[in-house]
Amino acid sequence: ACGQKEESNAGSSSPASQSPSETAPESASAEPSPSADIEALKGKRIALVMRFNTGTFSAQYVDGVKKQAAKYGGEVTVLASENDLAKMAANLDSAVNQKFDGILVDHGDVGALTNGLNKAKEAGIPIVAFDSGLNDFEGITNLAQNDQLLAEYTLEKLAEEAGGKGNIVKVWVAGFPPMESRQIAYKAFTEKYTDIKEIAAFGDATNPQLDTQNRMEAVLKQYPNKGDITAVWAAWDEFAKGASNAIKQAGRDEIKVYGIDLSDEDLKMIQDPASPWVASAAVDPTSIGTVQVRYLYQKFHGDETDAVVQLEPVFVHRDSLPADKVIATDELSQYVDGWGSSDLGNTDYLTALEQSTGAQ
Amino acid sequence: MTALDQASVLHMRNISKSFAGIRALNNVDFNVRGGEIHALLGANGAGKSTLMKILSGAYESDEGAIEVAGNVCVFRSPADSKRAGIHCVYQEVDTSLVGHLSVAENIFLDRLAASGQKLWLRWGEIYEEAGRLLKRIGLTLSPRTLVRDLTLSEKQLVLIARLYAEKAKFVILDEPTAPLSLEEADKLFGIMEELKAAGIGVIFISHRLPEVFRICDRITVMRDGERVLTENKTDIDVSGVVRAMLGRSFEEEYPKLETTRGEPVLEVRGLESGRRVRGVDLDVRRGEIVAVVGLVGAGKTELSRVLFGADQADKGTVSVAGKPADLSSPAGAVKSGIALVPEERRKEGILVRESVLHNLSAPLLKTVSRFGFLSGKGERGYADKQITDLGIKTPAVTQITAYLSGGNQQKVAIGKWIGTEADVYLFDEPTKGVDVGAKSDIFRIIGRLAQEGKGILYLTCEFAEALGLADRILVMCDGAIVKSFNRGEATQEELLYYASAGREEFA
Amino acid sequence: MKNRLLPFTFKYGALIFIGLVILFFSLTNEYFFTYNNITDILRSISIVTFVAIGVTISLAVDGFDLSVGATVSLSTVVTATMMVWYEMPLVVVLVVPLVVGALVGLLNALLIVKIRIPDLLATLAVMYIVNGIHKTYTKGYSIYGNMPMPDGSTAPGVMDKSFLWIGQGKLLGVPFPVILMLLAVVGAHVFFKYTRWGRQMIITGGNEEAARLSGLKVKRIRTFAYVASGVFAAIGGILFASRIGSGQIDAGAPMLMESVAAVFVGYSVFAAGRPNVVGTFFGAVLMGVLVNGLTMMNVQYYTNDMIKGAVLVLALAVTFIHLNRRKTG
Amino acid sequence: MKNRLLPFTFKYGALIFIGLVILFFSLTNEYFFTYNNITDILRSISIVTFVAIGVTISLAVDGFDLSVGATVSLSTVVTATMMVWYEMPLVVVLVVPLVVGALVGLLNALLIVKIRIPDLLATLAVMYIVNGIHKTYTKGYSIYGNMPMPDGSTAPGVMDKSFLWIGQGKLLGVPFPVILMLLAVVGAHVFFKYTRWGRQMIITGGNEEAARLSGLKVKRIRTFAYVASGVFAAIGGILFASRIGSGQIDAGAPMLMESVAAVFVGYSVFAAGRPNVVGTFFGAVLMGVLVNGLTMMNVQYYTNDMIKGAVLVLALAVTFIHLNRRKTG
Ligand SMILES: Nc1ncnc2c1ncn2[C@@H]1O[C@H](COP(=O)(O)OP(=O)(O)OP(=O)(O)O)[C@@H](O)[C@H]1O
Ligand SMILES: Nc1ncnc2c1ncn2[C@@H]1O[C@H](COP(=O)(O)OP(=O)(O)OP(=O)(O)O)[C@@H](O)[C@H]1O
Ligand SMILES: [Mg+2]
Ligand SMILES: [Mg+2]
């Protein structure tokens, strides 16, 4: 199956350019019995080791993983860690002990997982990670959402809509790798736009939404005049929700909110014309799950996969959304390019596998 | 006093102490010699316990000094006092016991607490030695028993066993005999004599004057925080002591009020509960005071608890005023018209952390409230009345009950039931720790209740009280009623004979 | 003079302290002591105050309800699903979570009063159970209007306008949740201070055995206390949902510690040294004032906790140094 | 027969229960009862067990230390910064967090023993303070090798290999943290059972007044207990850092509830009804087994909490129904 490998490698970086008809015969010729090849991919037991597991974003991501695995006839076990890296390490160990066929890692950490990942490698279990910073780890495919880019998209839009000047409020908290990456972009942004001033900054991850709402209210009282605050930049959708609620309830419709991440719930708020939240940048959580499963199946198939796969973020602004109806993230692809429809990581034999499983 | 005596004298000079501005001790001067038994007497709240707590280092005095063998000592903590050889058995036994630890560990509590001992413990030796000490004071208990499973008198004896485990020069016994039966008290007196013979000075506090005169060498009387006299026993008599205590002459008496006896108000048939209540039948008529006497462990307390629904009966029927009583819980018993003044007041009778007011009104919140709202006036009025009637010594009705003297706490435990509209009153050793004056007050109140047509069941191991007070006396032995006497029929000796199941030594 | 001053500072020390904190923020920021900001603070503490009243009640009977946070989470998602999934009328939307809260209280009471598991242990276990239930019920999703359902369809309902008014509306210029909160505080205070049942709770909390032997139905009283605690937590959950307009998973988790902190600061108020409703309210006010004031001062967010803790210590120390002195003095 | 069986099931009920849970998982999943999985479970509970021993000690003197979770967080970031920011030798890396833990314990003791703030109140306040300190110290960032510093430079150090071995290495095929944990459990058990100091703690916890009247220096003992609690939490923090190879902000936050749960289940073991170290260990084992076993059974992750809670209730009920029956019976 060496020819196969090359093909799927190419496929992973530019899936759209590839037509199924080109690869199908090739894989057929390389493999004497394609159906046997596909059969071998069925009935896989997959462990999904997660660091965070609450909120709509996580729920949608898990959904994406499970649905895609189900399409391939696989079964997913979720090992949730409640944001406790030690528990996550234990969960990874447990996954190895249980001899899963493959392991998916979500928001891991090099230090915490190195040992477990080595054990998994020894046991010959393929691993695909998402947003875990495991780039130096050989043999693992890393999906990464470009957090700096996510931040840049929203900050640039903020600057543009504010006319390059104004007073902004930042809602952000350190301590989480994605947050810290977003802060790098924010720092660059403040250096670039010297006329944009940060007048308040806060953030609390333990009760993100309500706490943000309460604190935003305090800031609004502190700057009571229209024009005192131009915009709010929220580095996390939970923060954006809280800030938007506070602003909306205070009737300060001149303040705009820019957030990061996008769940169905967030999308609904962005579409609401009365909501100050106008834009967000995100990678579709469902498609992250989908793509991650595809890469794992490539590994099952024995393909040589890329060490790093970048998931390009999508910028969603209210202006690009329909005003006449409320849509969910699975319809978003009709309005925003690059959302949800990602064919990244797909191959012919996976399509065939999907069809063969669906037929059963 | 010879020089030798001087060397073994403990002297408290000019001791004063106030609590939140209220003076509990005023310029008290008190001394004890080695090798004597010195009684410290006084009405409830006179300041006896406070004085002793200062001596044992539990409290610090505001003024005054303590000298041991001529040296001035400063006791900032119980450890200091212990180091000077002073050991104390406190009035509130539960304050010096650890419930979930074994008897052995409680006996050796001071030793475990002492510094400079070996780090490692040998449990085998500890249990063995504890067993020996228990035998010596005549307690048949396994040293491994948990203290929380003991009765009050057993707890008191464990504390006395603790004295043996220590090397004391002076020993304070704050009302040790209150929870003890006569038999157990006798054993204690034997121990006190032994201590005395060993040259140890014993300070003995008690409200039972006969025993005081039996065992003591000298007597000090306190009144309202001051020392009023110190005499050799031989130089004073009971009435002199009582006069000094109360500030007036007083004859200990059993005020017998005339009552008319009505129909039976409490009927108990075939009551059984565990090993402690075995086939009890009894009747109490309206206006009648029935005493149940028995030695310690006879099952009196158990009987009263079963009759109050605090423990469950295995068998038998109980009716009040002709109707079957609901004894599934104390709440049911109260509703059926039964009230109980329990024996172990600090744990069961009062709420130590609440005010006197809240304690007194606890069982009759319904009476002092309207549509669920409490009437502050009604509640206070009731409390004030009980405080006057029973002579409860408290600076204010809002005082926290924990800060009352032992005897006054007991009065609160009684007072709270007086106002309820119960038909039957159960009193379990209500006069323990109560001074002679207040004792008469309690008897008078009991008599008045009888006059009002209530039925009284009075459980006691003080035969004299039963003889003085009761219309009828039932003798209890090993959980069963073995004999019944009408008023005037029985003598102390007869009661003792039946209470001890006719055993030779008491006959 | 000194003798009269001391008890005064002692009794009102904690209140004076809260006053000083408010004064400080008022002086450093002109917008702090404005009507709008003060009502905002009160509104921001309204949820915690309800939960904290429940905790106060359980502490009054000498219990401790660790499950209140989980109950808030459960009732907030139940409230939201009533509207979003089932399109129920407002009264059902409000009654169902209250019933659910009462049921959680009953479960606690069953374990504590019947099976006699110590309160901390029992309510901790119930906390886990209720947390699990609310996540299982929503399959880990937050609840909001017209949300996509796991089966692909769209939820039929939205968050009701009149419901949202409960958490966001105003009556005579005062935020409605603030009115509710003040009513609850006054009501609970009157209950404890002036009614027979309140007194019975306090007595039960003082010494259960002595209360039982005073003829009180201590089991019923304790059961009632846990049910009340559950219901107050459920009210907190309802307010939560109506304040943020959705049913968030795990929304109540931080409420436990916050409400406990409020209750504990309340121990200091009037030098009570024990749980009391008015104290709890002022405790919640102190915490709310701190969050608001510190945000206005724009101190680094990560130092907030430290300041909060230090202020807590000071507030407590004011009382307990004295309480201590009085006891031994 | 029946009479002899009852006390037996009573005393060993909780242990039998744990055994049944293990049996159940072993039967349903072939991978559960393997050497690797069992040692993994033990390793996964080692951190919580250390923290829980600290909680047990504070409970033994009738205190309650709510600050342990925060102390874990603080010591884990201190440990990491010692290596990453300051490149200290291993011994300093280990000693500094222990000292920090002891200082937190001293602060608790100061408030509780000197100022006499009730323990729950004092340690809650300290929890906030310590949480604030550890975030302020790291400016809210997690600590990892060669991390970018807020000033733009790069941190000089990495997490030391020999340090990481503490949390991740094996000795004779047994994970090193498991060995440490077992030593600590046995040591603490022996301390409480066979040494004078241990008994003094238990006496103090059983009845502080009695302890004081017996001449015990209760203040010193309580101080010692809180310091020990802080130090054990700090050990938990060190293990945490070495297990995950970085210093995470707020890493200890979930430890409080988890360790408290372990301690409480421990009340049931041997029907002690009180805090005891061996029970705490088995409590931690039960929790670890449940988490591991439930994930293996592939129950929905959001139902885990529910099952955990239900099992907790069962484990507790086994003991307390009996304990209760014995008392009234
Ligand atoms: N801790 C305290 N706080 C306030 N008042 C106290 C305290 N301890 C004792 N008192 C008061 O001091 C006075 C003396 O009490 P004490 O206990 O010494 O009396 P007593 O002579 O031992 O009485 P009894 O025979 O009833 O035991 C009482 O009025 C009591 O209310
Ligand atoms: N909770 C308990 N556990 C074990 N034994 C008990 C318990 N309560 C009582 N007993 C036993 O019952 C006996 C005491 O019974 P009870 O208290 O009813 O007798 P009493 O006649 O009232 O004695 P006292 O004069 O001491 O009050 C004691 O000998 C004790 O051994
Ligand atoms: Mg006294
Ligand atoms: Mg008795």
The helix count of chain B comes to 19
Mean pLDDT of chain A equals 82
* Distance between the amino and carboxyl termini of chain A: 26 Å
Would you tell me the overall average pLDDT of chain B? 87
Q: Which stretches of chain B are low in confidence, meaning pLDDT under 50 for 5 or more residues running?
A: none
Strand composition percent of chain B: 25-35%
Largest interface in this structure: C-D, 46 and 46 residues
Describe the model:
The complex is a heterotetramer, with one copy of chain A (360 residues), one copy of chain B (507 residues) and two copies of chain C (329 residues). By secondary structure, chain A is of the alpha/beta class. In chain A, 47% of the residues lie in helices and 17% in strands. A six-stranded parallel sheet of chain A has the order 2-1-3-4-5-11, with helices on both faces. In chain A, strands 7-6-8-9-10-12 form a six-stranded mixed sheet, with helices on both faces. Residues 1-32 of chain A have low confidence and may be disordered. Chain B is globular, with a radius of gyration of 23 Å. The two termini of chain B are 45 Å apart. Chain B is of the alpha/beta class. In chain B, α15 packs across α16. The longest helix of chain C is centred in the N-terminal third of the chain and has 27 residues, at 2-28. Chain C is built from 13 helices and two strands. Chain C has helices spanning 2-28, 35-60, 68-84, 90-114, 119-138, 161-168, 176-194, 196-206, 208-212, 218-244, 255-268, 277-297, 304-328; strands at residues 170-171, 174-175. Chains in contact: A-C, A-D, B-C, B-D, C-D. The complex binds adenosine-5'-triphosphate (ATP) (2 copies) and magnesium ion (MG) (2 copies). Residues 19, 24, 42, 44-50, 91, 393, 403-408 of chain B line the site of one adenosine-5'-triphosphate.
